[in-house]
């Protein structure tokens, strides 16, 4: 999640009735700060997907503690394997 969008996210989610625990799919998670999303959705589970090896590496570094706690799972997908037929 982009740090600049954090307050807007919190405000927007104030209009949505969410259960206490949710599962979040974050597609294109890249260079955002997943700790901000974890703060909003705690104690839920967040599944992060990105096709960029560099962005996944950055996310793995940033979210290491959340991954260790079992709150975040990170998946690496290659564009050609997702959308191109063999």
Model description:
By secondary structure, the chain is of the alpha/beta class. It has one domain (about 5-15, about 20-85): Vaccinia Virus protein VP39 (Rossmann fold, 3-Layer(aba) Sandwich), CATH 3.40.50. About 40% of the residues lie in helices and about 20% in strands. It has five helices and three strands. The chain has helices at about 5-15, 35-40, 55-60, 65-70, 80-85; strands spanning about 25, 45-50, 70-75. Strands 1-2-3 form a three-stranded parallel beta sheet. Helix 2 links the parallel strand 1 and strand 2. The termini are far apart.
Brief overview:
It is built from five helices and three strands. The protein is α/β, with parallel strands linked by helices.
Structural topology:
Blueprint: H1 6-13, E1 23-27, H2 34-41, E2 45-50, H3 53-62, H4 64-68, E3 72-76, H5 79-83
Parallel strand pairs: 1-2, 2-3
Question: Key terms for this structure?
Answer:
three-stranded parallel sheet; Rossmann fold; alpha/beta; single chain; 86 residues
């Amino acid at each position: 999640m982009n740090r600049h969008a954090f307050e807007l996210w919190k405000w927007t989610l104030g209009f949505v009735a969410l259960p206490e625990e949710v599962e979040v799919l974050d597609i294109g998670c890249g260079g955002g700060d997943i700790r901000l999303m974890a703060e909003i959705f705690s104690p839920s589970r967040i599944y992060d997907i990105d096709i960029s090896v560099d962005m996944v590496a950055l996310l793995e570094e940033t979210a290491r503690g959340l991954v260790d706690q079992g709150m975040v799972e990170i998946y690496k997908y290659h564009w050609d394997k997702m959308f191109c037929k063999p």
